[in-house]
Amino acid sequence: MDQWISFDWEALGANFWSATVDGLTFGGIYALVALGYTLVYGVLNLINFAHSEVFIVGAYAVVFTLTSLGFGPSVPNLAWYAIAANLLLALVFGMLASAVTAFIVERVAYKPLRAKGAPRLVFLISAIGMSFVIQYLIFWWRGPNPEPAVIMFQNKPVFDIGGTLIYFDSILIVSAAIIMMVVVDQFIRRSKLGRGIRAVAQDPDTATLMGVNRERIIVSTFILGGLLAGVAALFYVMKVPSGVLYLGGFLLGVKAFTAAVLGGIGNVRGALLGGLLLGLIGNYGQILLGSAQWNDVVCFVVLIAVLMVRPEGILGSNLGKVRA
Amino acid sequence: MSRSTKALAAAAVLALTLAACANTDDGDSGDEDSSTPELTVQTAIDAPDDAVSPAGDGSAECPATTTIAYIGAETGANAQLGINIINGVKLAVEEHNANNANCQVTLQTFDTEGDPNKSTGPVTQATNDENIIGVVGLPFSGESKATGTIFEQAGLVHITPSATGPALTQNGWTTFFRALGNDNVQGPAVPKLTEKLDAKTVYVVQDDSEYGVGLAGTATEALGDNVVGSDKVTTGQKDFSATISKILAEKPDAVFYSGYYAEGAPFNQQLVAKGYEGIFIGPDGVKDQEFINQAGDASANAYFTCPCIPGELITSFSDAYKKVSGGDAPGTYSVEGYDAATVLLAGIDEGNQDRAKLKDWVTNYDAQGLSKKFKWDETGELTELAVYGYKVQDGQIVSVGVL
Amino acid sequence: MSTGTPMGGAAESQARADELVEETTKPTRLRGLSDWWNHLPRLSQWAFLLIAVAAAFALPLVNIPLLTTEPSNDWPLACAEMARYALVAVGLNVVVGQAGLLDLGYVGFFAVGAYVAALWTSPDSTLVHIPYLLTLPLAAMVTVVFGVLLGIPTLRLRGDYLAIVTLGFGEIIRLLATIIPALRGQQGFQEVGHPPGTNAEGNPIFSNSAGAPWYWLTITVIILVMIALGNLERSRVGRNWIALREDEDAAEIMGVPTFRYKLWAFGIGAALGGSAGAIAAGQIGFVNNQRFDVQMSVLFLVAVVLGGQGNKFGAILGGAIVAYIPLRFTGIAEFKYLIFGAVLVVLMIFRPQGLFGKRPHLLTFERRAHKRIANLANAPAVSTAPAGTTKEAGQ
């Protein structure tokens, strides 16, 4: 048999910093999407399998908004504040589209089942069904090809570490992901809605007795997850301008879901940790082992290994335990 | 909740106002790399004078049941390629039937979705229909491998317009013919192109398809010492940053991407966005208008090799094709589909109206087609093949002539 | 709790192991159908069973006008594919339906089986070649090993975690087929073997254009599997699976070694998926890395859910339907995932038990127990009694 696994430490050493930066950038996107999985899981103890489609619908909205604003395959010839305003508008539409999709998913695939008190497997399967429906509606409408590239701005290197240029988009995405994470973390800890989410996560029945409107909390959680997916969608389009296709959400969703589980599903900080770790591990593994197929293999192997040691993920899984 | 909604609305209004003032113009921001020599562009080519026309001389006679079939993808993710071919075949059949009142050939289509696992059903169905005496298909190498034996057992001749796996002609099948060069043809053409473009160092990137792997092998061999590095990507990949950082460290003059446009387009786009200034070379799998759509301005650095003639440049073919396709210009492998159908129709016109005779006809065929000369060796490979070079100019793929 | 009844004779079990009803009626009538069947005398059941099996065997030979997949797909080959999906669904039903473990990477086992058949029979492989029929048990054994290797570290995880881990497993198998050069990636293996024998024209009986022999081979395997599973379900293993599925915590507390029985289900499911993969490899005659993706896993899951989780006859029907629809209506084949996705949602909302519901036959001598209860309590509605009642009655 041929040698099929070999470690190229030299390549990893030579590309270490760029792999780190790229890994963190994608990790940030994974983390934002992972938050959607984690929040819903925290509240309902159910995986929203259709969250990847919530994300990709947002990405389509971002692309359509930018295209109709005149963005296209060329670097736009605009002042920075005009670009920023356009991106902000695209962000708003992306978040709206994702939030509406999340709301629809909740109404169609979750609420009727909750009313019946169906077993867990039933929820998961209906969410998988919903995910397929959205994917193939997009396929029906847009065909198998991705949307044409949309370039948002001239991506310039900002500084370099040891000869590796660090580009503006990486800095933007990583810092935005961390800021969003802090905001969500604080939101869950301090706001009224956050308190409600934690209460329902901890004990739905007692929370209801204490005057928490459980149905409203659940819907809000889905919408919150959708809004965050919309943010991720903007960064995704920024980083992968031609990655918006019917399967795009699924491919990224699997990674984000893995990230959520790795960090501890139902745990906001776990989502950030899991996302960034997964971005790094995948990138390092890919360079070390010499081909892109290894990216996913390494990620899943690490996931299985971590779950063997810590069955609830690195940081554990209880959203309800978070204290204000 | 309400406070944040208000803030959101305010931001949206602000953004709208600013966006309304903004005015994007598609100013050419990418400057041409002046060190790359300009290649002369072919603007139009004439159809070869001696090309066989499916219309024939109008005197053909055949039973009303005479049928040829297209078997291949009609739906699914590979549908576009199938549609390109079907329209080419359809055009040939329509031209034939319009001119031959006493020989109306029926075209039947069977859908495999391009999937080896789904291909045996439609192929068996076609071979069981005695009226079908010749087939154009199957378009992909995997499904061709799965079904070659069925054709062989049924003695049904089939000409593939697009399956390029080199191993396909090594099975001893007497019914298999290929209307284009296999993967091994393009590899040696790559150094010819890099030489013309004055590129000394080439970085080879391959995907995980049979096509990409095989082509990367022959190209690497032909390029010899000019190869400064290589990497592998995977089908469906959308982010190429790990590969790109390796390439940028080597600063090659050219990147040869051995694969399809689905990955090639985002790859080149991200490569250029990260500051790569060299040229990008892709094979026929990348040469598609969709590559330009997806890679955007980055595609300006792209060159292609293809063992195919630019069908859209033959005005007479292009115009006729648009009538069949409902306005779409000929796509990749449309000409091959047309030519393959022409070979079969010419045989029917000559009185070869059962499977055995039509198979003999194709085996001994020797005539000019629209795209190339069709004469096969005993394995089913074409004997004469030319590889053309292409480049992207003003958002269009244009031919730079034979390599 | 445990009744400890001995395993019944194979013949007796087989009679009950089958309520194979070819004709599907509306879901609402199924309950009545099932009642009717359960109240038939044993002898009539046998007679119906024989007719049903004969009808199943005759399926590829009768080309019923509206039902046929022609002229777009050869009917016998379509039957073979339906039977293959049915076998896959029966296997996945053990994992999902019986033991309640959500497996989103079942296609991984299918792929392993296909590669086993290819590696040991295709001329493209350098390994020792063995007769094709031996690859069926070999594929089953190898996939069991894979199933156990995957199961040991992961089956201690709770349901949702298991879903993502199995999904990852399926992806790893697919990617390794690309990465490992000996597995030949997309290039694949041609001329995978087939059972021996040639017909009058000198072509192999089991050529890859001959659907009927492959179909008969597959349903023979299915019938053998059904007999074995029928016995297993009514044994301690089957009862423990159901306990596990209904409430894992309660089962654990009541002394069911949950991990061991999960592993059982996983292993058996894997073996069946592997066998189906080996059969598919033989019929198509070609194996490469295409189409062993998550979508396939979900399609398999649809088959189980559609038929009714936990009902192996439902699984057969579900598998056949999932294979049949895109072959029959080629025009809509493009939308099959859209349709099946919608079916999943609608089914979960309105009929989560699928076409056939679960059939908790827990006892070997259930029929006798039913009678006794009926006599004792004079209760006419015994057959609709929930599982719990039946269980108590058995003691």
From TrEMBL, chain A:
Transmembrane segments: 27-47, 54-72, 78-105, 117-141, 161-184, 217-238, 244-263, 270-287, 293-309
Superkingdom as given in the UniProt entry: Bacteria
Compartment(s) of residence: Cell membrane
UniProt KW Cell inner membrane keyword: yes
Keywords: Amino-acid transport, Cell inner membrane, Cell membrane, Membrane, Transmembrane, Transmembrane helix, Transport
Family matches, as Pfam families: BPD_transp_2
Membrane topology type: Multi-pass membrane protein
The family this protein is said to belong to: Belongs to the binding-protein-dependent transport system permease family. LivHM subfamily.
Record's protein name: Branched-chain amino acid ABC transporter permease
Organism listed in the record: Mumia xiangluensis
TrEMBL record, chain B:
Domain of life the protein comes from: Bacteria
Signal peptide stretch: 1-22
Pfam family, one: Peripla_BP_6
CDD domains: PBP1_ABC_LIVBP-like
Keyword line: Signal
InterPro entries assigned: Leu-bd, Peripla_BP_I
Leucine-binding protein domain: residues covered: 66-395
Annotated family: Belongs to the leucine-binding protein family.
Protein name: Branched-chain amino acid ABC transporter substrate-binding protein
UniProtKB/TrEMBL annotation, chain C:
Residues that span the membrane, as ranges: 43-64, 85-118, 130-150, 162-183, 214-232, 263-286, 298-325, 337-356
Keyword annotations from UniProtKB, A to Z: Cell membrane, Membrane, Transmembrane, Transmembrane helix
Membrane-protein topology: Multi-pass membrane protein
The UniProt record lists the keyword Nuclease: no
GO molecular function: branched-chain amino acid transmembrane transporter activity
Region of interest: Disordered: 1-23
Any one of the GO CC terms: plasma membrane
Chief localization: membrane
InterPro entries on file: ABC_transp_permease (IPR001851), LivM-like (IPR043428)
One Pfam family per UniProt: BPD_transp_2
Compartments where located: Cell membrane
The protein, known as: Branched-chain amino acid ABC transporter permease
Species this protein is from: Mumia zhuanghuii
